[in-house]
Each structure stands twice: as C-alpha cells, then as structure tokens.
Amino acid sequence: MVSTYCLTPKTHLEIPTIVVFLLKKLSPFHFHHCKFYSHHSLPFLRTSSLHVKAIKDGSFQNLDVANHLLNVYVKSKNLNHACKLFDEMPHRDVRTWTILVSTFAHVGSNGAALELFKNMQNEGIKPNQFTLSSVLKCCSSLSELKIGKGVHGWILRNGVVFDVILENALFYFYVKCEDFGSAKWLFESMEEKNSVTWNIMIGAYLDTGNVDKAVDLFRRQGLKDVSVWNTIINGLMRNGFERIALKLLYEMVKDGTLFNEVTFSIALVLVSLLKDLELGKRIHGRVLLLGIHVDGFLRNSLIDMYCKCGEMKMALKVFEKMDTYFGRNENSIEEVISWSSIISGLVLNGEFEDAFKTFTSMVHKDIDIDAFSITSIVSACASFGVLELGRQVHGLVQKMGHKLDAHLGSSLIDMYAKCGNLDDAERIFKQTNDMNVVLWTSMVYSYALHGRGREAVQLFEFSMSRGLLPNEVTFIGVLTACSHAGLVEEGCRYFRLMKEVYGIKPGVEHFTRMVDLYGRAGRFKEIKKFIDENGIHHLRAVWRSFLSSCRLHRDIEMAEWVSENLLRCKTLDARPYVLLSNIYAIKQRWEEVETVRRLMQSRGVKKHPCQSWIQIRNQVHAFIMDDRSHPQKNEICAYLYKLIGRLRKIGYSSDAKLVMQDVEKKQGEGEMLLGFHSEKLATAYGIISTASQTPIRIMKNLRICDDCHNFMKYTSQLLDKEIIVRDIHRFHHFKHGCCSCGDYW
C-alpha cells in the first residue's frame, strides 16, 4: 500500500494518516520504503518524526537507514538538520559523505563541499566517481585549478575507473579554469563522448570567440541531439553571427531534430535580434500547435520577442493571457519576469504612459519589483522627463531597501539629469562612492547634457587619474561635452586617445560628435577632411550633423552641397529636409523652401509635429503649435499675448521669417504663429500654474528655434524666474536673461 501511494504523482505531497501509521509500524528491515521521500520535499515535521522513530526503535544504528534519513533531509532542503544528523551518525561510509558533498556543491556552497571532501579523506573514506564529480564541479565554480589538478592526480594514482560522467566533470573543470591545453588533450583522448562532452567543447570555443573552430567541431559530430544544436545556435548569436545562427536553425528543422522549450526560446531571441516579426509569428504558431505555450519561460520569451519587434499589441495579448493559462502563481520567477518584460517593452517602444500604468498596477498587486523593472521605469521617467514620478520611484526604491549599486545608481543619475535636476544627479553620484565606469560615464554625460562641458572634462580627467578605464560610451559623453562647450582641441585629443591609447574603434556616434564639434565652431574644411580620412561618407547621421552646423552658421552654399550627399540616400527621415528648408527660410529664399517641401511630398516624407510638455502636480500637459485643445486655452493664450507685449518693451522682437521653417503659411501670418509655438504655450501654462520662485521644466521633442530661445531669455529676465528647457540635443537653463548654452547650440 505504501509503495502504491509512492508511485502516484503529486504536485504537492500530502501524506495520508494511514501511510504515516504504517510507517510507524515498519521494522528497520522495511525502512527502505523511505527512499521515495528522498525525491520529494517532505514536510519538516514528518521528516523529524521519521528521525525520532528511527532513534527510538534503534534502527538509526543501521547505516542504510541513517543514510536514507540524511538523504530525506537534504532533499527537503533542511540542510541544518542534515548536518546535525551527519555529526550524530555513529558510522559513515562513502555514500554518507557523498550525499552531503554533492548537496553543498548543488546549492553553491563550494568551499564547504571541499572542506567536507578534505575531512572525508582524513577519515580514510575513499571517494567514488560521483563524489569526485561533485568535487570537480566545486573546483570549476571556484576556478580552483590547483585543487582540481590535485584531484585529477589522486584519481590517476588510485586507479579510479573513469566513467563518462566523471570524465565530463574533469573536462568541464579544465574548460572553466581556462586550461584549454589540458581540455583539448582530454577531449581527444576520451574514448566515449556523449552529447555533454561535445557541448562542453563547442561551448568552450564559442566562449572564447573561436566561432570557426566551434562550427567545425559541430560539423565533425555525428548524431546531434537537441542540446548540441541549442549550444551552437545560441553561441553564434552571442558572438554576433545571427544570420549563420538562423541558417543553422533552418538546418536543424531539415535535419528532423525536434525542438524543445529551450530551442524555441533561443529561436525567439534570434528573431528579436533580427527583428523578423513574421518568423516570430510562425514560431509562436508552432508553440501553440505543440501546446507548450503554457511553459512560463517560453511565454516570457514570446513577450520579449514581440516587444523587441515593436509589436506591443501581441506582447500584451500574451501577457494578459498569463492568468488564464497559469492562474495566479504569486511572485513566481516567471510572473516577475513577465511583468518586467512588458514594462521594459513599453519603455523600449516609447509607450511611456502605458509603462507607468503597468508599473502602478504591478505595485498595487504586490508583485515583487525586481531591479530590472525599476531601471526600466526609471528610464521611462528619464525619457519622458517626468521628475515628480521619478522621485516617487526613487522613494519606492529606498522603501524597498534596494541596494544603490552601479546599475541602479547610473539609472537614477541619468533620470535626474534628463529631468532637468542636475543637483540630485550629483547627489546620487556622490552617495554611490563607487569607481565604476558606468556610474562615472553617466555623470560625465549628465554634465555634457546640461552644457557644463568643462566640469564633464574635469570629471573625465579625474576618473582616468584614478585608474578607471573609459569605455566607448564614456568617450561619447566627453566628446558631447567638448562639442557643447566649444572645446575643439580637447575633443580632438580625446578622439585620438580613444583610438590610440584605449584601442576603441570609433562608432557612428563618435564620428557624429566629432563632426558636430567641428561644425559648431564653423570649421567646415576640417569636417570635409575628417569625413574623407575616416571613410564615413555613407553615414547619414554624420551628414545630418554637418547640415545642422550649416544652419547654425547660415551657410547656404555648404548646406546645398551637404544636402546633395544626404538627400541622394532618399531617406524618409524628415530632419535633413526640414534643416535645408530652415536655411532657405532664414535667407528668405521662399522658392527653394517650396521646392524642398515638394520633394518631401513626392518621397512620402512626413515631418513629426513639434510637441512640448510640462508636468504640473503629477499631471503631464502636452502642447503643439497653435494648440487650442487645453481646458485652460483661453487663459493661456491671453496670458501669453500679454507677456509678449511686456517682453517687447524690454527688447524682445519676433523674427517672423523663422515661422516659415515649420509651417506653410503666408509670411504676414508669421509673427502671430510664432507666439503660439508649443514651448511658449507650455511656458505660459507653467507660469500661471506655479509659484513665482518655482523653476519651470519644459520638455520638447525637437530642437528649440531661435525665436523661442530669445523668448525664454527675455522671460527669465522679466519675471526673474528660472526656465529649464530640454530639446532633442541638450538642456537650456534660462536665468536672468542668459542661457547656459551661451547661445551656442
């Protein structure tokens, strides 16, 4: 009867009273029935009762019984009681020691496992293959090459017969300790190789970036099981060979190897990298057909794939069916990852409001909020520029007791800086007190964003003097700082330093920052030379930056030459067309303005509407040009009209021709339309909604125009009020009639 019950699968084991009663009646001879419980998590009280029973009836003296009890304790995760039982055992054999050694190895207590192994040898107990496999696993985890080699020597000296498990454990040990010479020798000398063996060797080559060797070894293998396919495809992805990985995935299908859950997850990651939505949908269909969509790990892979392919509707559909398929498995790893993934996806796709709502729902439902969810929502606050919400999230982080590590600290620094509060960004930076390149890079970039280029450069120099190795992102930050502050010579020196000293290959953003650096200073000849020397004629971002500089210096001839190089690419990006149109408008060449607009129409290029927004009392108010949709539109427009009249008295004048940059209106209507640019409407609303000494923070999705820039300077002077504007490139701090950019933007 006991054996029959033991064979019945249970998701949660409940032992009937009759079974417990029968166990009490069993003699020591029948105690082997306890073996079943060593494969399940037996409730602690029941385990203890078995222990007490064994002591009372004397069966504890039987080594086989004691070993079974020890196994029950460790499988029930009662390690403290297992150790206590181990110490109380009058006799111990190789199985006794192996149970405890393998358990400590399994839970990651590698040092304790090695200490036990040492004591085992001191007691004269000879380890078996399983003991030695566990010990080698510990050596692998700790990268203890010397100890592992000692174990290998002991095996050879004592004539222990290698089975494939022990041989694989030794092989994996050498690979993990990066002793590839010994690993290759062992691999070639192994008479019996199973799929684990091949996986280890292929994985070793992939981990060291030797893709050709890994693929060659994969081809050499005869019969390949699913795990080997998974290893090679995943490894190729990690090394940046997505197309070859996709080719092998199709080859796997042709080979007839059945996908498992891991294969499907790897395939979905590959789809995410390739942004191949149609393939992703086909894989999703196959998952549904096989009925394995209920796997939590696979479901999260589907959510991640749809998010990264920009298909948020499908991602949310999979996410919303979570409770239908699985019920509410509160705070399981799968559930937490699902919430984190959907929030991250919403942020990635710019759906910030939905991300905030989802995060709020996560908090209300008492879902465990992991660091990944926090950094995602902090990133959303940074991108959207909502300071008050960012502060609330920061407060939640402190309340939850999350450690302010480098990753979270850099996210908070970035958030405060991008929300216009550089003081709090500096405070977070000082609190961390960590020489981590991510943190220091965040602070360097924050200074650059706010136009404090010299402070960014000083911080960068100080970090290098402290031995901190800058990465490619650090150099983007310091080059941006030099560009915004007009530090041309310093920027050129850092660009050379990046290549020649730190061996960092310049990317698109580095080249663009250098062109911007030269361009802001009006050094167009140097830009041409820089583009030729670096062979970057194909980079649109570089030409776009060059064209922006032409607009800044109102150089039409150069702008036309740059435009020829840029527009021949037939880009659908509206920015270069708008820039060229702006330049013509400044020079009042209206026919050319119209020509550019017709070109945009013929190519189907659409300009993104200019939008500005401001947060007042936890609510975001967005405005577009000539916006009449706000509930307080009459009050806003009346105040703005009155404000412009007062500004004219102290020297402000509207530049009516600038309106032709953005709208197709008659020139006579220009001055009126300038008064209703989105940032002016947001400013007016901010003034009438806040106290006189409260700074106004305005976010804008495009570059601030010259007229609005002048308007902000005069307004800050007239009202003695600080106005902070974040446009697409940088922050402008307007105070006492001056801007932090020094009119250099």
Automatic annotation (TrEMBL):
Organism per entry: Gossypium anomalum
Ranges: PPR repeats: 93-127, 194-228, 295-325, 335-369, 436-470
Protein name: DYW domain-containing protein
Family assignment from sequence similarity: Belongs to the PPR family. PCMP-H subfamily.
UniProt-listed Pfam families: DYW_deaminase, E_motif, PPR, PPR_2
Membrane-spanning ranges: none
Domain of life the protein comes from: Eukaryota
Keyword Repeat found: yes
InterPro entries registered for this protein in UniProt: DYW_dom, E_motif, PPR_At4g14850-like_plant, PPR_rpt, TPR-like_helical_dom_sf
An example molecular function term from Gene Ontology annotations: RNA binding
Residues annotated as domain DYW: 651-745
Keywords: Repeat
GO terms classed as biological process: RNA modification
